[in-house]
Amino acid sequence: MYSHNGDSFFVVDGHIHFWNASPANQRNKYGEGFISCFYDYHRNLSPPEYLWERSKFERYSEADLMHDLFEIGYVDVGIFQPTYLREFYTDGFNTTEDDGALAEKHPGRFIVNGSFDPRDGESGIEELERLAERWKLKGVKLYTAEWKGDSKGWKLSDPTAHRYLEKCRELGIQNIHVHKGPTIWPLNRDAFDVADVDDAATSFPDLNFIVEHVGLPRLEDFCWIGVQEPNVFGGLAVAMPFIYSRPRYFAQMVGELMYWLGEDRILFASDYAIWQPKWLVEQFMELEIPEDMQGEYGTLTKDVKAKILGLNAAKLYDLDVPAQAYHPPVEQEGPDVSEKPAVTA
Hints:
By secondary structure, the protein is α/β, with parallel strands linked by helices. It has one domain (2-316): TIM Barrel. 39% of the residues lie in helices and 11% in strands. Strand 1 (2-4) and strand 2 (7-9) form a beta hairpin. Helix 5 (121-135) packs parallel to helix 6 (159-171) and helix 8 (219-226) runs parallel beside helix 10.
């Protein structure tokens, strides 16, 4: 856990990878271009002391991951979010099987999530069932802009996608993580649009939809969906590094999320290995909403930070939080006098 001013904070990194983007695994120019785009994000938004050489970034080791997350990075539990990209990488970019093998070597450290692609039809349903049984899945990571043959994306609102979401419900997979953020070359930006989240969240109110990267660059669209759909959450991967390069912009993003979604539906994530959790956690705990913005957004209290760093994710995944971890005081029952934005009819 992370210690800060005498308190210990339970940290769940809600978005991590163990990828293989080495030249030997790159299937074509798109595989090379994809990791190049990742590396540009890494170089442009990281403190200089945390920059890696390109060769390490393409294929880091198990020892690197364990060190950066758990030895120095304050992470208590990391959630693997697989991204297969088999059109670009021969053995896949970051698969459930590779993540699961690492998780089995380090019990209690990782949550293994699966994935599905509705374009796979009935064979994909069978594969989802296999993954769920093998890894006891509580979540899946979806990549709606992934290429497959001549298709360059799909939507959560597609009838075929609903068939898979129904299967998730049947299998007890409640947490649906969806990449809805900045595009990565050569994928199409529009295939990451957040509009289909609205349809899925309404159609499946018993599932949790965690919008990874909080919809950037469509934060406003995402917030207007999230305020009306109580089963929609915001994952801060990709948003987090702006805490270093553009702290005021990051404070504004978090302020908007707290205003629209509330402090209970925001999840910390590093997007490792694009960024490392150590500096993100440290800078987040020191962050304050600028004084001139507090009248609109309020403040980032210790209670709010504890929820975002780990307690919110712990609820979604039924994690045991150590008793010594800081917990916000239990609020007394009483009439709800809070004001919510009047956006519903």
